[in-house]
Amino acid sequence: MRLLTIEDLDLEGKTVFCRIDINTPIDPKTGKLMDIERIREAAITVHDLCFAKVVVASHQGRIGRYDYIPLEQHAKALSEILGKDIRFVEDVFGPKAREEIAELGSGEVLLLDNLRFIAEENLEYEPEQAAKTVFVQRLYKLFDACVLDAFPTAHRAHPSIVGFSYLLPSCGGRLVVKELKALNRITTAEKGPYITVLGGSKVTDRMEAIEALISNKRADKVLLSGLIANAFLRALNKIKYSIGISGEDEIIECARSLLVRYPQVFEIPRDVAVERKGERVEIGIDELNKEDVIWDIGAKTIDAYSRIIRSSGTIFMSGPPGAFEKEGFETGTEGLLRAMASSFGTTIVSGGHLTAALKKFGIKEWIDHVSTSGGALVLYLAGKSLPLIGALERSAMRFGK
Ligand code: 3PG
């Protein structure tokens, strides 16, 4: 893989479009940012571009969800981390945004508003088509170059990832280079058995990746928790009612087919924790009823999964096994992360929530590679080609010396 870095492009005094990913966990009650680790990571690249006019852009949340909010708070956080004023514009490609970009001076930074406020940024395109979107066409002439540093969004062929980079000399930011170096080091030295521990709430993305992980020899065993475990429990008819996820029928069919084709691979929870009268109560799967919300895995599951984790060669964990931010329901997440921390295998922990959990439990430094990327890293390990990396490779071929 060959890609250009900031030093390969002459960016002094130039106007640079810098695509970062500061999509941040949001408190559903207050609407406030909950963890600013991704903003801290992105700040390194923005800092290192201090000799240019920098237009920073990111998405936040998904349409229709509580985390689909403007980036004003992000601008404040970035400003505090960098110790300098970050301008913010409530616009993405309209006249207000274009005016602010044109007025930028060297060393100044402007953050555009949530990219997903514009329709095109919610769709995937071939690079040539992405370059023809209204979003890219309205802005690209104002830029001299593009820096791609949104590693957590590397799997999305959105205009901000593949469109500008189709038209402008483009290089990887610090985070992209750091991630690729670390992953390359790990994947050339690792050994089996390979274990993937999956949790969290992004079921569709994970389902797509499981088969690729298994065929790319990244998953001799898959330990399931979180919403994705519920889908498999439903496929096995151990949960007999709807689990309330969108596209449920298709997801369950997919789980069923994976179970038939790979009967030895999947481990499903033996017990779970639910809330009854405000308390954590652990019950067997057969005791679950329709009113129960599963908030965590139970002690028997934690014990069984921990044993597998400790006796494996390479362990990759993505998505928290339980709602660790909810008092009384952190046990599963803490238990499995501690098993990872004490394992002699090579350990990779992925995603913003697990990164925050590692920090909360004070064991981050015991993990070999911690990445704030979730879905993108899963697909990278599954051997899938990622649009962001493809864009950087094309630019290296076109503009590299
Ligand atoms: C993530 O958090 O995984 C990235 O920011 C991508 O977000 P998305 O899954 O909503 O595209």
* Residues in helices, as a percent range: 25-40%
Report strand order across the widest sheet: 3-4-2-1-5-6
Main sheet record: 6 strands, parallel
Report the end-to-end length measured between terminal Cα atoms. 15 Å
- Can you tell me the residue ranges where pLDDT is under 50 for at least 5 consecutive residues? none
CATH domain topology of the largest domain: Rossmann fold
CATH architecture of the largest domain: 3-Layer(aba) Sandwich
Tell me, what is the CATH class of the largest domain? Alpha Beta
Task: Describe this structure as you would to a colleague.
- This protein is of the alpha/beta class and 401 residues long.
- It has two domains: 183 residues, Phosphoglycerate kinase, N-terminal domain (Rossmann fold), CATH 3.40.50.1260; 153 residues, Phosphoglycerate kinase, N-terminal domain (Rossmann fold, 3-Layer(aba) Sandwich), CATH 3.40.50.
- A six-stranded parallel β-sheet has the order 3-4-2-1-5-6. Strands 9-8-7-13-14-15 form a six-stranded parallel β-sheet, with helices on both faces. Strands 11-10-12 form a three-stranded antiparallel β-sheet.
- Helix 1 crosses helix 2 and helix 8 packs parallel to helix 14.
- It is globular and about 65 Å long.
- The chain binds 3-phosphoglyceric acid (3PG).
- The site of 3-phosphoglyceric acid has 8 residues, from loops.
